[in-house]
Amino acid sequence: MTSVHAARTPSTSSQFDTARVPRAYGVLLLVLAGVLLLNSILGPLVLNVVSYPITDSMENQLIGLELVTAFLVAPWAALAGLAALRGHPAAPILGFAPSAYAAYMFVQYILGPEYTRYSITALAQLAIFVLATALMLASWSLSRQVTLPPMRAAQATRSGLLLFALSAFVLLRYSGAVAGAFTGAHLEGEFADERTFFWSIFLLDLGIVVPCTVAAGLALLRGAAAGQRALYAVVGWFALVPPSVAAMAVVMWARNDPHASVPTVLMLSVVALAFGTFAWHTVHPLVTGRVGTGDQEDR
Prior knowledge:
It is built from 9 helices and 2 strands, in the order ααααβαααααβ. By secondary structure, it is mainly alpha-helical. It has one domain. Strands 1-2 form a two-stranded antiparallel ribbon. Helix 2 (56-85) packs antiparallel against helix 3 (91-111). The radius of gyration is 20 Å and the shape is globular. Mean pLDDT is 88; it is low at 1-19 and 294-299.
């Protein structure tokens, strides 16, 4: 059994065993980067060829989302794909974040707009969702062969507690919804006219993100080897999604959206910066190559 707290000796090899990590993984990450960028270009961000039956407030949020997708997520996916093709040992871990981000966002792309007709757009975005989900699962599976930098018990404890704090932050954002569930309150703000958007995000955040983040924190505190991989996965996701939410708030403010809020812009910008800083310090050893390859048995 391998514990996350035990020191590991990285393999002397800096390359993947290509028999176990197919080139198709890197190629598909590049494909994901391309279709994410194309989806943003065709949408209201640039060409507006693809239009959605949504309110002006939700379109403003979509523009903010697509800015982050075009300038942060797609490049991240492309770099992870190139890293995989060049044999960088950490490529599967780096590839998890943009894949998970895309799967998370394209659930909202498909369920959010209330189409009254069958939509080729929804069909194409379903294909992107399937690709992103498959890459997310492949990234997690392939990351088992990566020998990660040693993590001390105290560092694992701090990281686990931080993941609990991230879960609490997400839960706190839904405190009004939870309280309203017991009083029968109506949806407020921009989601009053975009109910399917709200409930899809509600499902994803409280049904998937929070439980997975808590599970990763528990795995770290238990010293399971999977806990450290889960830490990189969760931190990568949090490095991408909060900036997109902050960008939504900024675009709403810049376009004089009636639901815009300067305090919200400031709060979300600070949160995005904090998460990004933590993610950089966490993932930096992987980017600089202080990892190896080899089999790791999860405890």
